[in-house]
């Protein structure tokens, strides 16, 4: 774990993006969620109408996403303000997959929005095929991500 003490002996607030990315490499879902704002959003890069919202639903999504990747490495971090980009490479089903993840921070420095941008197409397709069945175990997460546009109602008993 990173030491966040400043040279004057006080404690600095850990950077949410650095915390999130370090946790993602080890699929530490609790640490990833700790870096998120309570009202965090993640628009799906796979299904245009789906927006995952809130730490409870993102806990399930992030566990499924990062649990399915192998050899995740963060290659580059761009920006130091409220909008950042984190570039990564990993493997899924033996294929290399890249992500240029745009991360927006709230005023408290927590992650408010994550916008993944995945490539190449074949690896992204393999990723979607592996992710789908994991999310299907949580129909409430899918229903909430579809929101009111889908005509489906969210049910609290669907987890």
Task: Provide tags for this entry.
single chain, 159 residues, alpha+beta, 5 helices, 7 strands, 30% strand, globular
Any chance you could write out the topology, listing elements then pairs?
Layout: H1 16-25, H2 29-34, E1 36-43, E2 51-53, H3 54-67, E3 70-78, E4 83-92, E5 95-105, E6 111-115, E7 118-119, H4 121-136, H5 139-146
Parallel strand pairs: 1-6
Antiparallel strand pairs: 1-2, 3-4, 4-5, 5-6, 5-7
Helix pairs in contact: 3-4
CATH architecture: Roll
Q: In the CATH scheme, what's the topology name?
A: Nuclear Transport Factor 2, Chain: A
Structural class: alpha+beta
- Given the C-alpha coordinates, what overall shape results? globular
Report the order of strands and helices.
Answer: HHEEHEEEEEHH
Distance between the termini: 32 Å
Helix content: 25-40%
Count of distinct structural domains: 1
By DSSP (H or I, 4+ residues per run), the number of helices equals 5
What does the average pLDDT come to? 87
Stretches where pLDDT is under 50 for at least 5 consecutive residues are 1-12, 150-159
Strand percent estimate:
25-35%
By DSSP, the count of extended strands is 7
CATH class: Alpha Beta
Sheet with most strands = 7 strands, mixed
Radius of gyration, whole Å? 16 Å
């Amino acid at each position: 774990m990173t030491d966040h003490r400043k040279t004057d002996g006080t404690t600095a607030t850990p950077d949410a993006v650095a915390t999130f990315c370090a946790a993602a490499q080890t699929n530490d879902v609790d640490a990833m969620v700790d870096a998120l704002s309570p009202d965090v959003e993640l628009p799906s890069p796979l299904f245009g109408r789906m927006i995952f919202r809130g730490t409870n639903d993102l806990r399930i999504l992030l566990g499924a996403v990062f649990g399915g990747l192998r050899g995740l490495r963060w290659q580059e971090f761009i920006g130091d303000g409220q909008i950042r980009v984190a570039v990564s490479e990993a493997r899924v089903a033996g294929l290399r997959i890249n992500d240029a993840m745009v991360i927006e921070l709230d005023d408290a420095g927590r992650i408010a929005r994550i916008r993944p941008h995945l490539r190449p197409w074949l690896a992204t397709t393999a990723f979607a095929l592996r992710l789908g069945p994991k999310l299907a175990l949580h129909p409430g997460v899918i229903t909430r991500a579809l929101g009111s546009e889908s005509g489906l109602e969210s049910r609290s008993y669907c987890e």
